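Please annotate the following for my students:
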Amino acid sequence: MKKLTILTIAACGLIAILAGCAPKLPVEDTAQVGQHQIVIIEPTEGAAHNFNSGKNYLQFNCGKNNIHFENEILTVNGKKYVIPNKTDSIKVKYGVVQINGETVKPIN
């Protein structure tokens, strides 16, 4: 009986550890804002996400992540990026910004 209890406790501990190591499924949202196609890929972190877009703006919140696009300015967690062309495609993946497939740096 004692061996069974120790084995049960060990198995429960292992399950708890493995559950914490499970990969978080990403949230992927796509929007057409003006002529820009904007794709956002972020981990869910177990948090609900809020995604709003319109003809000239986009707002995305998920956990600690805050992404806003308006007037050709993209803001990702407080860092600003100028989008040079009205037809550029934009991807934000785990906080990294790509314009037309090239990683770019913020202006601030």
Q: What stands out?
A: The radius of gyration is 20 Å. Residues 16-22 have pLDDT under 50 and may be disordered. The CA atoms of residues 5 and 11 lie 10 Å apart. The longest helix spans residues 2-20.
